[in-house]
Amino acid sequence: MISKVVLAAALFSSGVGLVAPLALAAGGSDLCIATPTEAVPDGCKAPAQEPGPESGELPGAADAVARALRLVGGHGYYQLCARLAANIWGRPRSGYYSAAKQWQHMVAIGKAHTNDRQPPVGGLVFWDTGGPYGHVAVYIGNGHVVSNDILDRFPGEGGVYDVDFGLIESRWGATYLGWAPPIY
Questions:
Q1: Least crowded by CB within 10 Å, which of 39, 48, 94, 152?
Q2: What's the CA gap between 147 and 87, in Å, rounded?
């Protein structure tokens, strides 16, 4: 873990970290998070498809939220919201060109919960930002999401934050679209 932290610090200080961030969870090892060039490690569970019928929760959401909270305070996710959400769910990348494309795919396959402001813990929540890319964050419960960029002090910082669900709309003027399960 120490070598990964040293590597992450070197990449971040060199500026390369802004292009290819390492998704390292602070405060411990998380074997289901990989760098953007690594495959998902063996033993990782597949992301949830839909909430379970009895609990109404996404299977694996507790692990995803724990990963999300360990990533809070990190950097290197400038304009990489889809990658952050995928990393939270233990994947090195989302597989989509943008959050907007991911949302469009969820709508097309019938997995989008349009305008539903009651996402399950771990659900991917989407906004239209007025541009071609959109925004996605991960709902962690109690009205909060883990999101990137929203509280950055300077462009390119790419910080990871635990923020109120409504801050994406109030600060960026984004339009809430709905939520979808983490299908990758």
A1: 39
A2: 12
